[in-house]
Amino acid sequence: MDTAGYCKWGGGSQDLPGGHWGRWEHCKQRFFFLALLLLVATILWAFILSLLLSKASVERRALVGQQDLLETNASEQTVVLGALKEEVGACNSCCLGTKAKLQTTLTELGETQIKVLQQESALKELQERVTQGLAEAGRDRENVRTELFRVLEGIKFQNGSCEPCPKSWLTFQGSCYFFSEPPSSWEAAQRLCANLSAHLVIIEGLEEQGFLSLHTRGLGYWLGLRAVRHSGEVQSYKWIDGVPLSFSHWNTGEPNDSRRQEDCVMMLHSGLWNDAPCNSKMDGCICEKRRSCYP
């Protein structure tokens, strides 16, 4: 076969008319067409690349602008942060000074409070002493009055210068005693005696105790004696006139302040004393008042 009659392009052969020059023209046309396609593709790629480069340039400028703005903001924030640090440092220094002053003030306040409490304690103790002294003075006055009454009673008994005790009242050493047997609470018993111009009995010694023991019945009888508590504990006992207890006649094992509720004192039918709850209504009472005498 004669290969001169063919133009090979792209792996194929084509038999063209015109001989050698025909084949050359055909190949030339193909080269031109390919060159044109290559030129068009190159132009397109150049155009696309220019667009991409232009867009990249714009974005780069934007990024650079943002970077500059961020750097400016960062610089400003650094300045602000420095100022805040200075303010915080100054505040911390001020707070430390204020804290020290407050601590000093608290210490002084604590010391002042302790002094005030000490003064209150001393004042309360002084008040109790004055009250006790007044009560003892009143008791001494009553004792003197009793002795004078004995003398007056012995001297003036025949001329009737002393008023007799009311009916149903008993007489002993210038006092009148009333044994009330309807049971009542300690407070109710004190009101009953007050309504009779008297008070719950105050026992000053063994002689008076013996006299009262002779007239007790099957009941118990409230006395004018109550407990004095501090912090829930019984510290002492006082008569209703404020005089501390000196003479006592307790029953065995008494006072025991059962359940920390026994603040009042009553006399058993045996004459012995017992502490009991003030709201108990199982006991009567003994009222006492002085006889009135005239010169």
Automatic annotation (TrEMBL):
<dbReference type="GO" id="GO:0070061">
    <property type="term" value="F:fructose binding"/>
</dbReference>
<keyword id="KW-0430">Lectin</keyword>
<dbReference type="GO" id="GO:0046642">
    <property type="term" value="P:negative regulation of alpha-beta T cell proliferation"/>
</dbReference>
<feature type="domain" description="C-type lectin">
    <location>
        <begin position="172"/>
        <end position="282"/>
    </location>
</feature>
<dbReference type="Pfam" id="PF00059">
    <property type="entry name" value="Lectin_C"/>
</dbReference>
<keyword id="KW-0812">Transmembrane</keyword>
<dbReference type="InterPro" id="IPR016186">
    <property type="entry name" value="C-type_lectin-like/link_sf"/>
</dbReference>
<dbReference type="InterPro" id="IPR001304">
    <property type="entry name" value="C-type_lectin-like"/>
</dbReference>
<dbReference type="GO" id="GO:0001618">
    <property type="term" value="F:virus receptor activity"/>
</dbReference>
<dbReference type="InterPro" id="IPR016187">
    <property type="entry name" value="CTDL_fold"/>
</dbReference>
<dbReference type="GO" id="GO:0033080">
    <property type="term" value="P:immature T cell proliferation in thymus"/>
</dbReference>
<dbReference type="GO" id="GO:0005537">
    <property type="term" value="F:D-mannose binding"/>
</dbReference>
<keyword id="KW-1133">Transmembrane helix</keyword>
<protein>
    <submittedName>
        <fullName>C-type lectin domain family 4 member G</fullName>
    </submittedName>
</protein>
<dbReference type="GO" id="GO:0005886">
    <property type="term" value="C:plasma membrane"/>
</dbReference>
<dbReference type="GO" id="GO:1903902">
    <property type="term" value="P:positive regulation of viral life cycle"/>
</dbReference>
<dbReference type="GO" id="GO:0002456">
    <property type="term" value="P:T cell mediated immunity"/>
</dbReference>
<feature type="transmembrane region" description="Helical">
    <location>
        <begin position="31"/>
        <end position="53"/>
    </location>
</feature>
<keyword id="KW-0472">Membrane</keyword>
<dbReference type="GO" id="GO:0030247">
    <property type="term" value="F:polysaccharide binding"/>
</dbReference>
<dbReference type="GO" id="GO:0097367">
    <property type="term" value="F:carbohydrate derivative binding"/>
</dbReference>
<dbReference type="GO" id="GO:0002710">
    <property type="term" value="P:negative regulation of T cell mediated immunity"/>
</dbReference>
<dbReference type="GO" id="GO:0033088">
    <property type="term" value="P:negative regulation of immature T cell proliferation in thymus"/>
</dbReference>
<dbReference type="GO" id="GO:0120274">
    <property type="term" value="F:virus coreceptor activity"/>
</dbReference>
<dbReference type="InterPro" id="IPR050111">
    <property type="entry name" value="C-type_lectin/snaclec_domain"/>
</dbReference>
<dbReference type="GO" id="GO:0046633">
    <property type="term" value="P:alpha-beta T cell proliferation"/>
</dbReference>
